[in-house]
Design goal:
Layout lengths: L2 H14 L3 E4 L4 E4 L11 E4 L4 E4 L5 E3 H8 L2 H11 L7 H7 L4 H4 L10 E2 L7 H12 L4 H6 L3 E3 L7 E7 L5 E8 L9 E2 L21 E4 L2 H7 L3 E3 L10 H9 L3 E3 L5 H16 L4 E3 L12 H9 L2 E2 L2 H9 L1
Helix pairs in contact: 1-3, 4-9, 10-12
């Protein structure tokens, strides 16, 4: 970025904040936060990244949003001209909704014809072993009925439990098939071929007005229970329907990814993405490998000790 553009941005910020400090070495402006009105200049505005963040109340996002809320229309249009930023009143609304025909792009899946609903009293060795497998993982029979588990005795998904996912309208949009036998010779999971960025796993059961707990896998979500949504992996994509839904609903987010290298890397990337968009984000740290290995008491304790995601978490985890 050339110094002329930095100066143009600074002149606009001067119209928004009369009392500020400018760090020329980093092209950052320090001002009083209009959201929490803290007595120190804790609002940091990056003129290179066009992002802002308050280190007290975590208010943040793109500078376009800040100017749109606290500046004049003329100031906002001038910022648009200088930066070529998106129009938050129209373009962002379209981005967050995924366009005008998002639902039409979602690939529909079907349960395999050999899938049978899992319940007590079935005279089948596979069904009984499936129930035992789920019980060992802390999945109660009430949960099995609520989430509509299936099992297969033959075909591609033989000796597996199937956990279906339903969209906001109650239509099947995905499922995971987990082997009920742990063996290095057997693939643990077999999932249908579809674009995972389209999927919000079991959105039917999610309350967006409450904090969203992001985990990696569906069985982690079952263990956590409290409004947990699986990423179906260790990363959150800005292009995914899940991210759009979180941003659109202004949901608070708790990151509880696996405690391994991939999970820690995913936590850093997701935390940066969410906080850059001004989404209140906190992280949970725990000793075990993943939430699916934790007891309900351990999960409750871990969630109570969660802390806000900060830039220091990024640096510390990079150095680990």
């Amino acid at each position: 970025m050339n110094q002329e553009q930095v100066q143009q941005k600074l002149e606009l910020i001067q119209q928004l904040f009369s009392d500020y400090r400018f760090n020329q070495n980093h092209n950052e402006v320090y001002a009083y936060c209009p959201q929490c009105n803290h007595h120190k200049q804790k609002l940091v505005i990056s003129l290179e990244k066009d992002l802002f963040h308050c280190w007290i109340c975590n208010y943040g996002g793109h500078v376009s949003k800040l100017i749109r809320v606290y500046g004049s229309d003329a100031l906002y249009r001038e910022w648009q001209r200088i930066t070529g930023a998106i129009d938050f009143e129209y373009d962002l609304r379209d981005f967050l909704s995924g366009g005008h025909d998002t639902q039409a792009t979602i690939t529909r899946v079907k349960l395999p014809p050999e899938a049978r609903r899992l319940k007590n009293g079935i005279p089948s060795v596979v069904a009984q072993n499936a129930l035992k497998f789920l019980a060992k993982r802390g999945v109660t029979y009430r949960t099995i009925r609520m989430f509509n588990f299936y099992y297969c005795e033959e075909g591609k998904y033989r000796d597996r439990v199937l956990l279906p996912s339903y969209d906001i309208n109650g239509k099947l949009n995905f499922f995971v098939a987990r082997s009920i036998y742990d063996s290095s010779e057997i693939m643990k999971y077999i999932n249908p071929q579809t674009n995972k960025e389209e999927i919000i796993f079991n959105e039917l059961f999610i309350t967006w007005e409450r904090p969203i707990i992001l985990v990696e896998g569906p069985f982690d979500a079952l263990a956590v229970r409290r409004n947990a949504v699986p990423l179906l992996g260790s990363s959150l994509s800005e292009k995914s329907n899940l991210f759009r839904r979180i941003a659109n609903a202004h949901s608070d987010v708790v990151l509880m990814l696996d405690n391994d290298q991939a999970g820690r890397a995913g936590t850093i990337k997701a935390g940066k993405l969410l906080t850059d968009w001004g989404i209140n984000t906190s992280i949970v740290e725990y000793a075990k490998k993943d939430p699916g290995e934790m007891t309900p008491a351990e999960i409750s304790a871990a969630l109570k000790s969660r802390k806000p995601f900060t830039q220091s978490d990024v640096m510390r985890r990079i150095l680990e």
